[in-house]
Amino acid sequence: MDGDNPTIKTVGDNRHLNITTAYLKEADNADSAVKTRLYQGLKKVLPANLTYEEFVKR
What we know:
Number of helices: 2
Mean pLDDT: 87
Radius of gyration: 12 Å
Shape: globular
Strand order of the largest sheet: 1-2
Number of strands: 2
Largest sheet: 2 strands, antiparallel
């Protein structure tokens, strides 16, 4: 992710994060691209059976 570093804060318990990034802030429909990159980057620490669809619903 080029540009500014993301800001990551825990929300409530340590299982919920609020991640703020400037990645693709000027692009239309950037949400999907950001969620895909986050899923790919976090996949190694997520439950093995967690699908992308389940990831974006949480």
